[in-house]
Design goal:
five-stranded mixed β-sheet; 698 residues; 3% helix; 3 helices; mainly beta
Length: 698
């Protein structure tokens, strides 16, 4: 069956097609079709081809990571439409999907909206460890993911999967040098340890001076990167019915933090630069058993511990610059522990229901989280958060006809939140929460899958610890999201082109919003009163389009476009001056109206390839409690790769036009030179980066 072309060549693509004529003769001699690789994803509890999953999912594979020369999750999120991140740290570790997600964490304990899973371990809230060396793929699952993930995935989940152990011995060593003092060195080795056991070990070290210059201390490394991450994995086929997988991760993140400037540039005056460190150890074990003739058993247990230090020079300057004279440094030390176990039963052919038309699964989940905080700021504040949850969930998938499938699932979760602190603030709350999803999918033809889904997700409420807030704002309520999604996934032009289109509407009930008010104290010292509140309702809707086209044997084109409209409904707040604001109808924070990414990969010769990429993002509000905005921007990236036998060399360029763009921002007075008048202050994203990297495989 022939498909009409639905794309018109852009001028850039046309130029590349002309250049490609030099290789036309070679192609004419080989008319075999050029097909795209199959991408496997674990979603809705089953592994399927990305094009067969009735849900909006973006997958960033190893090759995409290599082309971007990406070493951390923040570097590839723009490839996914309607996905954003917030920095306010050495790395962007707070994520927003379809406009929903946290932007920072200071004194309050945070119930996350976006889950982060690394090799089966729940690392939600620990995004500093989301490095990308030896990673197979990153999966971005849009939410709500109420059935599969529960309370941590109101907006969705990000699943990072490392490369797995292999049955043949293989490995590589990789190194990179670049501007701003960047140096990386890493190696990975994989292979059989016996006839039934395979192992893999990878370790990587990344160093950089960072992109800021501290003129007061005459240093260019106060915002440095110093990251060491090691992974070990083991697969064991105990017998024909029992498979075990083990994983261990050790992350030693020792980054500096000196990212805000009084002049909104890359020059700081701090006399007490901060730090952003994370010492994480995580482990998991997975057991799959197929010995029962009626169902298969899957058990996943994991545990992680992290010591985190987040500190910064709050006045961003030295003592002498202030007329009244003061020096302010804020420091947060957190000890973090999380354990969970997920036990799952999956039907097989003998136990399918309703005459064999319906497969099923049932599971139970237990998790514990503890977070100890010590804050050093004009005295000491301590708090202890203990959370526990237990859930049962189930899902049925009914084959209504040869082309029509109905999938429906439900999760019920018992949530307990206990909080105490040195201000004698306490809370002990229990909630029963539920969420789920129902999806109808139709295989219109062998090349087109359409679906419609309704989902309900939830994020538990909590308690605010700031002693200056009123009793009315001491607690905040659980947020519930109801989502409608309609999508179409297509494979066209003899599988040379794949497309994914999704339209969505999300109703946010009791939407949780973070209020951040700057307070001027003694000697003009700036502090913040921060707490979570509930808007009566929010509304998020939009469209996402993704495509991957292998246009010829030498040219491929990837593109993604996101449109997002968000609104706060019935939300007002009062600022530090006692002025009330009504934000009804205003867009939500960190929710740009459009996001675009497009890249073209051109294989110039058998050994040399060129990648050109553009990403663009619309302006967005930095907060729900003030009206400061970022500016719209577009960035240009490029890389040239040379591959011959076991050697790969690449020249990489990021943000080639050296565009300034903001990844976090505030609006308050912090500069004594202008009388502490309210001013926008931003943290800038990465400037122009150029590097050379090499990899030798063995």
């Amino acid at each position: 069956m022939k498909h009409p072309s639905i794309f018109k060549a852009s001028p850039l693509l046309a130029a590349l097609l002309i250049a490609n004529n030099a290789l036309a003769q070679e192609q004419a001699q080989d008319n075999s079709p050029v097909t795209l690789d199959t991408v496997k994803v674990n979603a809705d509890f089953r592994e399927l081809d990305l094009q067969q999953i009735p849900s909006a999912i973006t997958v960033v594979g190893e090759d995409d990571i290599q082309k971007r020369n990406a070493d951390h999750l923040e570097s590839i999120l723009s490839l996914a439409p309607n996905v954003n991140y917030s920095a306010g740290a050495s790395r962007g570790r707070y994520f927003q999907i379809r406009g929903i997600g946290e932007r920072s964490q200071f004194v309050d304990a945070v119930n996350p909206s976006v889950g982060l899973i690394i090799d089966g371990v729940d690392m939600t809230g620990l995004g500093g460890a989301a490095t990308l060396f030896d990673v197979q793929q990153v999966e971005i699952l849009r939410g709500p993911q109420g059935t599969a993930f529960g309370a941590n995935a109101l907006a969705g989940a990000i699943n990072i999967k490392s490369k797995q152990p292999t049955k043949e011995t293989e490995g590589y060593i990789e190194a990179e040098v670049g501007n701003y003092g960047k140096q990386t060195l890493g190696t990975a080795v994989s292979g059989p340890l016996s006839n039934s056991i395979q192992g893999r070990f990878a370790i990587n070290k990344t160093l950089s001076d960072g992109y800021m210059e501290n003129v007061h201390l005459n240093r260019d490394d106060t915002n440095n990167i110093d990251e060491t991450v090691a992974r070990a994995q083991l697969n064991w086929q105990a017998n024909k019915n029992n498979d075990f997988s083990f994983s261990l991760l050790k992350a030693d993140i020792d980054n500096g933090y000196d990212a805000f400037s009084l002049d909104n540039n890359r020059t700081t005056y701090s006399d007490e630069p901060g730090k952003d460190t994370q010492d994480t150890t995580s482990s998991s074990i997975k057991w799959e058993n197929t010995s029962n003739e009626y169902f298969n058993i899957g058990i996943l247990a994991s545990h992680n511990e992290s010591d985190i230090v987040y500190a910064y020079d709050e006045d961003w300057a030295f003592d002498g610059i202030h007329v009244d004279g003061y020096n302010s440094r804020d420091e947060y030390l957190r000890d973090y522990q999380r354990s969970n176990i997920d036990i799952r039963l999956l039907s097989n052919t003998k136990s399918r229901l309703f005459g064999g038309s319906t497969s099923w699964l049932a599971g139970t989940y237990i998790a514990d989280r503890k977070e100890d905080l010590t804050r050093n700021y004009f005295g000491q504040f301590t708090s202890v958060l203990e959370q526990s949850s237990s859930a049962i969930y189930g899902q049925l998938s009914s084959q209504l006809s040869n082309t029509l499938t109905l999938t429906y699932g439900l999760r019920v979760e018992e949530w307990n939140n206990t909080y105490t602190d040195s201000n004698n603030t306490g809370s002990d709350e229990n909630e029963t929460l539920w969420g789920g999803k129902i999806t109808l999918e139709s295989l219109i033809t062998m090349n087109h899958l359409a679906y419609i889904s309704l989902a309900r997700g939830y994020k538990a409420g909590g308690v605010n610890s700031d002693e200056s807030i009123s009793n009315d704002n001491r607690t905040f309520e659980t947020e519930f999201n109801n989502s409608l999604e309609i999508g179409l996934k297509s494979s066209l032009l003899n599988d040379e082109l794949t497309t994914r289109i999704a339209a969505f509407y999300i109703q946010r009930k009791d939407q949780q919003v973070k209020v951040s008010e700057a307070i001027t104290g003694t000697n003009n010292a700036i502090s913040f009163k921060e707490y979570y509140d509930n808007a009566t309702e929010g509304r998020n809707y939009g469209l996402e389009i993704e495509s991957n086209w292998q246009a010829t044997k030498t040219i491929s084109w990837q593109a993604s476009v996101g449109y997002l409209n968000t609104e706060l409904l019935e939300y007002s707040y009062t600022d530090k001056y006692g002025t009330s604001y009504n934000n009804d109808g205003r867009a939500q924070a960190h929710a740009p109206e459009y996001s675009i990414a497009s890249s073209i990969d051109f294989k110039a010769t058998q050994n040399i390839s060129l990648n050109l990429e553009v990403e663009a993002k619309d302006e967005f509000y930095f907060s729900d409690s003030h009206d400061e905005k970022s500016k719209a921007y577009a960035l240009l990236h490029a890389s040239v790769r040379y591959i011959k036998d076991n050697l790969e060399l690449s020249l990489n360029g990021h943000n080639l036009t050296d565009k300034d763009y903001a990844v976090r921002g505030f609006g308050f007075g912090n500069d004594p030179r202008n009388g502490y008048s309210d001013t926008q202050h931003v943290q800038l994203g990465a400037p122009r980066l150029v590097s050379i990297s090499g990899r030798y495989s063995f």
